[in-house]
Amino acid sequence: MRVDSPRPHGTATGPGGPGEPSELGGPGGPGGLGGPDGPSKPDGLGGPDGQRGLAARIARSAAATGPATGARTTTDEILAWLAERRRAHGTRIRRIPFAELDGWSFQEDTGNLVHRSGRFFTVEGMRVHDADRPGAPWEQPVMRQPEVGVLGLLAKEFGGVLHFLAQAKMEPGNRGMLQLSPTVQATRSNYQRVHGGSGVRFLEFFTEPGRARPLTDTLQSEHGEWFLHKANRNIVVETADEVAEDPATEPDFRWLTLGQIGELLRLDNVVNMDTRTVLSCLPTAGEQRPSRHTDAEVSTWLGAARSRSRLRAEPVPLGRVRGWLRDERAVRRTDDGHFRVVAVAVEADGREVGRWTQPLFEPCGTGVSAFLFRHFDGVPHLLAHARAEAGLVQTVEVGPTVCHTPDGHGHHPAYADVVRAAEGARVRYAAVHSEEGGRFLHAESRCLFVSLDGVDDRDLLTPPPDHLWITPGQLGDLTARGHQVTVQARTLLAVLNSGAARLS
Predict the structure, then answer these.
(1) How far apart are CA 27 and CA 238, in angstroms?
(2) Predicted pLDDT of residue 407
(3) DSSP label at residue 67
């Protein structure tokens, strides 16, 4: 948990950040909390005292890892439930040629891969200009999905401990297919039922004003290397209603504490990317501790990095992307590096639609997302990187120290060798996590926290201009503002928020 900031993070706001009203309504609307199962007062909102109260409740949830500490079940029982749901769903995924895609086709004029409804997403081309690197612009396929999806966790207190309603959800690109998902994980096309399937369970808690009380609500980016200007709404709302309390009636949903999710985050490929990014937005309790840089200095550093960046992206037709070719089963680079665009057919029980086909991006290797950290005056600090990704709305966001994907552009991130050489007690956390399985096939990253305590290295203590030592609390402050922190850094922040790793 964070121990450095005098303010809790992730206060309830509208999707645009502080000052923008939320669509979800306020605590005074219908469905207000109360009664034996809900909190006795709306302490999650309403000024600093309420925010501190919410942060304290989240801290209690992070400390609860089993029945003895307030959880409704054990983590082993949750793992057994996930295994049972994996068997019950009987999912089948197979690669298919593009000609077998149902409803998807390549446009004759542009070569873009589109759905006949005009919804969901399109695979187009992107040309990237970088004035700071010699040579011609690079080009690649990219996903364009202008719809803002909903990634939502429903929260409720049981026995005075906050729990979160998680879903055992299959995604075709996940390693192992079924992972722990948020309560709701849906694009606008999905919840408007463009696919003609069933509705999204519990969506009303996130879309009907007054149905539940918002605890945090922000717009966040996704992978700026593979998406062009993609954003999802990350929401946590709280209810006092009786919801999914009988496993027999809702077999794909379970109530977990934050601490239990943290235990699952220590395992490979169990907690999906959407759950991780929502958890990163939660406020956590803090203590007033010194940081190397003030919040204003951190904002100035990020603003300066954005002003220096000369990375610029523009859409181009997929059929005209240079250095890539299309055959019957893939759109791939001529050297078969970076990633491929492939097609799959899916058969799955428990989804809004039982069978479908779709394109996916398939990376050609495993990524690395790692924070180096060390203590200054007893306070843990993370070495943050002002990371430029061509598809981000603001081009530059705060990322981990090292964020390496198999991009094939000849990039060798600073400090990559330090992370690669780390071993033993210096590696405070290591796990492999899947990226978004609804769009990417077997995209994985090895996520690490690596300690530099006791290392005497001037270059690390005084990093280059695009790196800065910040506290976990300052990273949380930036996350609460939306579109400031990359999805890779948010995964690592979720690891801290949930107690899966401890830096002190």
Answers:
(1) 10
(2) 65
(3) G
Give residue for tokens 């695009």.
466
> Could you please report the per-residue DSSP string of 84-149?
HHHHHH--EEEEE-GGG-SSEEE-TTT--EEETTS-S-EEEEEEEEETTS-SSPEEEEEEE--SPE
Residues in the chain, how many? 504
Secondary structure letter of residue 198 according to DSSP: P
Q: At what angle do helices 295-308 and 472-481 cross, to 10 degrees?
A: 60
9: pLDDT strictly greater than 60: no
Q: How many CB atoms lie within 10 A of CB 49?
A: 9
Residues 6+ apart with CB under 8 A from 276: 265, 433, 490, 491, 494, 495
Q: Which residues pair with 114 in a beta bridge?
A: 105
Q: Which residue has the higher pLDDT, 24 or 202?
A: 202
Q: Is 477 helix (H, G, I), strand (E, B) or coil?
A: helix
φ, ψ for residue 379, nearest 5 deg: -110, 130
Question: Phi, psi (5° rounding) for residue 73?
Answer: -150, 180
- Note the maximum CA span of the chain: 66
Q: Which of 53-62, 190-199, 288-297 has the highest mean pLDDT?
A: 53-62
Query: What mean pLDDT is predicted for residues 136-150?
Result: 92
Tokens of 401: 């120290």
What gap in Å lies between CA 366 and CA 3, rounded to an integer?
Answer: 32
Predicted pLDDT of residue 65: 97
Residue 365 confidence (pLDDT) above 50 = yes
Q: What integer is the mean pLDDT of 469-483?
A: 96
d(CA 187, CA 146): 10
Structure tokens at 254: 């379970």
The pLDDT of residue 354 is 77
Question: At residue 7, does pLDDT exceed 60?
Answer: no
At residue 26, does pLDDT exceed 60? no
Residue 402 exposure: Cα atoms within 13 Å on the Cβ side? 25
Phi, psi of 153, deg, nearest 5: -110, 130
- Among residues 120, 105, 81, 183, the alpha carbon closest in space to that of 353 is found at 120
Residue 190, H or E segment: helix 188-191
- Cβ atoms 330, 101 nearer than 8 A: no
Question: What are the backbone dihedrals phi and psi of residue 349, each rounded to the nearest 5 degrees, phi first?
Answer: -80, 155
Average pLDDT over residues 456-484: 92
